[in-house]
Amino acid sequence: MAEKLKILKFPDPRLRTVAKKVDKFDKSLEKLTEDMLHTMYEDNGIGLAATQVNRHIRVIVMDLSEERNEPRVFINPEYKILNKESLASFEEGCLSVPGFTEEIIRPDKIELEWQDLSGEFHQDTPDGLLTICIQHEIDHLEGKLMVDYISPIKRDRIRKKLSK
Ligand code: NI
pTM for the whole thing? Predict the structure, then answer.
């Protein structure tokens, strides 16, 4: 049975940890992704990084489908920006910054590489929401949050509200 994990909330300093690469593709990795997917679905998120559940390894889960039935797992994901001038703006939310959304601009032409649960490598040049979402989640693995993209004044306001 999948367990619901506790999600760290901004400004928890553990969200600033840089995640380590996964090198063991074992049962415990599979269990973590099942628990993360369960947690993400329970909280109506579209993506979740291991950092957010206080596990500091490079693991991301996601489901961008409307029916919520296309779970995806990215292990050790990396991306390369293919065109720095091609940008997209999207109203982003984050389970670690509950109750807030912010318009964030990101490159939308990227090349993505990752491993699956058996350690096999995959490559894709995604478009649409996946492009945005994977950058948001990889930011988490680097200890970066969507509030880092907004003005310090706004960030402080959010910090005060969530610290209550
Ligand atoms: Ni997030």
Answer: 0.97
